[in-house]
Each structure stands twice: as C-alpha cells, then as structure tokens.
Write a structure and sequence with these properties.
Belongs to the GTP cyclohydrolase I type 2/NIF3 family. It comes from Bombilactobacillus folatiphilus. Homohexamer. It holds the Pfam family DUF34_NIF3. InterPro entries: DUF34/NIF3 (IPR002678), DUF34/NIF3_sf (IPR036069). The protein is an alpha/beta fold. The chain folds into two domains: 127 residues, Udp-n-acetylmuramoylalanyl-d-glutamate--2,6- Diaminopimelate Ligase, Chain: A, domain 1 (3-Layer(aba) Sandwich); 116 residues, 3-Layer(aba) Sandwich (Udp-n-acetylmuramoylalanyl-d-glutamate--2,6- Diaminopimelate Ligase, Chain: A, domain 1), CATH 3.40.1390.30. Helices cover 32% and strands 26% of the residues. It has nine helices and 13 strands. It has a six-stranded mixed sheet. A five-stranded mixed sheet has the order 2-6-5-4-13. It has a two-stranded antiparallel ribbon with strand order 1-3. It is globular, with a radius of gyration of 19 Å. The termini are far apart. The model has no long low-confidence stretch (mean pLDDT 96).
C-alpha cells in the first residue's frame, strides 16, 4: 500500500514538474498526500459529474490531466457548482492531482500517445523551447492520405462527431503530420520549420486560421477533448506500475464521463 506522496513521486518521475510551462497550475489541487491511496480514478477534466463518479466508485485519488483550479476561487459559496465540487471532494477526502503540461512535454507523454494512436512512424519531437524541451511530435503516416481522408481517420480513431479543417484543398495529399494536443495553434511558426504537410491541434483561433492559410499549412482541429486519451493511457501506466511494484496495490479506473462541452450538430 502506498501514500499519495509515493504515488506522486512516481508520477513526477515519469513527467517531472521541471517540464511544466510557466504559470501552469500543475500538481496537487485538493486534499493531502500523506494518507494511503487505494482507488485511483483517471480523468481528463475534474467536473462535478466526475467527482460524483469518484464518490460512487469510492475513489480516494483523482489523477487528472487538466488542473482543477486554473483560476483562484473568489469565495467558497457552495451555491456555485465549482465550489460545491470542492466541498464534495473535501467531504469525501478525495485527493486531486493534475499532470498537465509536464505530461504534454514528457519524453513519452500526451503527444506521443496521440501520435501513436494514428500509427505515425518515425515519431520525433519539434517545437523546442530555450531549454531544448519539445512540446510537439511529428511523424509519417503509413501511406499518404488526402486531407479529407485523414480527417475521417481522426474521427474514427478518436471517436469524434466532427472536426474543423483549415486547408485550401481537401484533396491535397499529406504524409508528414505534426500533433500538439489541446490548444497548440500558436506554435504553428515552429511547425513551418519542420516542415509539415499538416498539423493537428485544437482550439484554433479565427485569425490564426487565416495566418495558417496564408502560410499554406493545413490544419485539422479535432478539439481539445482528444486529450481524453490521457485517462486510458494513464490507467495502463498505473496498472504497469502495479505489476512492477506490488506494494502499490492500486485499483485503477478510467472515468466514463464525457467532459467535452461541445456537441456537433
């Protein structure tokens, strides 16, 4: 049996906090790390429905990708759903820990998982910062596809009902593809240096879309929620640690809640 602190040490060995971006509120979000951990729920987001799921499953630790607290609470009025969620977590003694941009930039982290899920070959890093730490990944498709066909592949692999595409011609053929999960469109100048045939990233801003067209870099925007791959990959990783370290003795569950706020009609 392990404590929250021992579990966090193992998580941070895999994705060190030194990799996180400036001002990213990664790490412990709610609760404490001294008590034993028995049941872990992995999730992309920590939303009220996820907390209720954790309570029903008797989870005592939530491991999330997106931080619970991007902005400080202005009060603790529990008529506010977010504040009630904090109260529920504390009442049920559920610890919440987020591995965010440190996991995005880890040597085998979020963007590697996304690239692997598309069967990209010869996966390599790009978008290095001044510390020579890379965020994005790129690789080659097993065979060239049209932008239209690749968009359909993404919908199938990531179970999406729709994607946004920025391209002059959907019939153009692409082979070298880059991926930055979440909101990565601001990094497109680095993608131009690779060069890529196409970039996959979410939350592309309208005016950035025009810049991408002007620079002849096609983009498929599958939304931010594709990062939900985190909850399944982290479950596999924790299960692996269970086998390697029998004293872990963790029950690991992937959240079944869909926290995507968008519905495509």
């Amino acid at each position: 049996m392990i404590t929250g602190q021992e579990l966090v040490q193992r998580i941070e060995k895999f994705s060190p906090l030194s990799l996180k971006m400036h001002d990213d509120p990664t790490g412990l979000q709610v609760g404490g790390l001294l008590q034993p951990v028995h049941r872990v729920l992995t999730t992309l987001d920590v939303r009220p429905e996820v907390v209720q799921e954790a309570i029903e499953l008797k989870a005592d630790f939530i491991l999330a990708h997106h931080p619970l607290m991007f902005h400080p609470a202005k009060n603790l009025d529990i008529s506010v759903p977010q504040n009630q969620m904090y109260a529920d977590l504390l009442t049920h003694q559920i610890t919440v820990y987020a591995a965010h941009t440190n996991l995005d930039r880890a040597p085998v982290g979020m963007n590697d998982w996304l690239a692997q899920s598309l069967d990209l070959q010869n996966i390599q890093p790009f978008n290095f910062d001044e510390q020579q730490i890379a965020l994005g990944r790129f690789g080659s498709l097993p065979k060239s596809l049209t932008i239209q066909a690749l968009a359909q592949k993404l919908k199938q692999v990531w179970q999406l009902s729709g994607v946004r595409v920025i391209a002059h011609d959907l019939a153009d053929s692409v082979r070298t593809v880059g991926i930055i999960g979440g909101d990565g469109s601001k990094f497109y100048p680095e993608a131009l240096k690779v060069p890529l045939d196409l970039l996959i990233t979410g939350d592309v801003y309208y005016h950035t879309g025009h810049d991408l067209l002007a620079n002849h870099l096609p983009v498929i925007d599958p939304g931010h929620h594709v990062e939900s791959i985190f909850k399944y990959e982290m479950k596999k990783l924790l299960d692996q640690w269970n086998e390697e370290c029998p004293f872990f003795q963790l029950t690991v569950m992937a959240s079944q809640c869909n926290t995507d706020p968008f519905t495509f009609l």
